[in-house]
Amino acid sequence: MKVIRNAYDLRKAVDRFVDQAKITDVHTHLFTPDFGDLLLWGIDELITYHYLIAETMRWLDMPYEKFWSLSKTEQADLIWDTLFIKNSPYSEACRGVLTVLEKLGLDVAGRDLASYRNFFRGMTIREYIDMVLEISKVETLVMTNDPFEDAERSVWLTSYKGDPRFKAALRIDPLLNDWSNKYSRLKEWGYDVEEKLNGKTLSEIRRFLNDWIDRMEPVYMAASLPPTFKVPEESARSIIVEECIIPVSRERDIPFAMMIGVKKLVNPGLKLAGDSVGKSDINTVEYLCSKYPHNKFLVTMLARENQHELCVAARKFRNLLVFGCWWFLNNPSLVEEMTRMRFELLGVSVIPQHSDARVLDQLIYKWEHSRRIIARVLYEKYRDILDTGWVIREDEIRRDVDKLFGGNFWSFLKMKF
Ligand code: RAT
Ligand code: ZN
Question: Tell me, what CATH number does 213's domain have?
Answer without folding.
Answer: 3.20.20.140
